[in-house]
Amino acid sequence: MTYVIIGNGTAGIAAALSLRKHDKEGRIIILSDEEMPYYSRPLIVDVMTGKRSRNDLILLSPEEYLLQGLELRKPVTVKQLSISAKEVETSAGPISYDKLLIASGATPKGLPFGGGGVFYLRSVDDAEAIHQALRTGAKKVLIYGAGPVGIKAACALVEARVPVSFVVTSQRILSRVFDQKAALHFQRLFEARGVRFHMGRQVNSVIRKRGFRGIITDKGEEIAGDLLIAGKGVLPHVTFAAHAGIQANEGIFVNDRMETSAEGVYAAGDAARAPMAGGTEKEVTAIWPLAQAQGKVAGANMAGQAREYAGSVGSNSLECFGTRAISLGVVEGEGFEETVVEDEDLYRKYVFDGERLVGAVLVNNIQGAGILLDAVRKGLALKGHPFLYNFGRSVDETKAEVLF
What is the C-alpha separation between 309 and 290, in angstroms, rounded? Predict the structure, then answer.
């Protein structure tokens, strides 16, 4: 049996290790479009600031690939896919498979302008390119977009004493991740450290005079800077799958076995539109732990096991300037009831649909987050439950069943 995995990120590696656990003899080929072996993508901000080197991020060495019997082919790009022939056409030639996993990840949404001084932050190569620009004269950084990528980049840069300014299309940072109060808390933390926010603005063009000098907004304003990091979201890298006839729409649709509309072809991670917990809706949820969970399920099923994915619950975590925060599930919206517990430096909000807990926002005290995530996934009726208010006590998250 030959298994081919397109993608060497957390979903692809989780699938490969799951496959090897259930099939000791099968051939496992992993295709990567990067030169690096499997590495920690969340830590690339440390490479950007020079805090770590790219080798510090490696999670699976070449020797460990060999020990697991994994054939890593890199850098290789996928050109097209033939479902009928069970073949992947790559830049290194055709590769046949018996079972296929598409864990090809996502690519940053591109800007209508590029060239020198415009960067993205998706890979370790991107991080090194920004670091090189900072080393060779760039002093002030502009960040376009205030989602998780832009905010985490800014946090690392400010801690490295690099001046930062944001250009934000909406009137709020982290608008898809946290509620208004939590987002404002982080904005004030940045502003206290000299970061400026240009809200309700779009970048229309860049200014270049002997190199990158800044941007011009849709309001006609000129904002000076030495480089621009674009963090306007990502798009699943699945065009080749759609062209092959696999059902996809901004992500590949999969069932609870992580199998696509094509028999023997699976998808996981940022490329997959997987079932959400508690419903039939399918969405891309670009979160590291969920990609890993999806990869494990896909790998087991590719090896002939019977595993079901428990369903995705959106969750995001952020740690910046000593403040930790987590959001789970629904964080705000019409038709939901909210319960808030707060004091001077603590904020916890629980969101309910009737009696069921459907979301939470935790700032400065994130105790019990794992239990709450499981409760949201299971749709438990927790309105008024003492646990929601006794969060100051030590919580053993391995014993959640005792509480509920």
Answer: 10
Select from 86, 60, 87 the least CA-distant residue to 74. 60
Residue 23 has which token pair?
A: 């099939």
Where does residue 2 rank: exposed (0-12), middle (13-18), buried (19+ CB within 10 A)?
middle
Q: Which of 346, 199, 358, 209 is nearest to 277 (CA)?
A: 358
pLDDT of residue 9: 96
Q: Residue 31 in contact with residue 6, Cβ under 8 Å?
A: yes
With a cut of 70, say whether residue 213 has pLDDT above it: yes
Banded pLDDT at 391 (limits 50, 70, 90) = low
Phi, psi of 55 (to 5 degrees): -70, -25
- CATH number (3.50.50.60, 3.40.50.150, 3.40.630.30, 3.60.15.10) of 2-35+74-107+234-302 reads 3.50.50.60
- Residue 268: burial class (beta carbons within 10 Å; 0-12, 13-18, 19+): buried
The CATH number of 110-230 is: 3.50.50.60
Report cis status (omega within 30 of 0) of the bond before 75.
yes
Coil, strand or helix at 241: helix
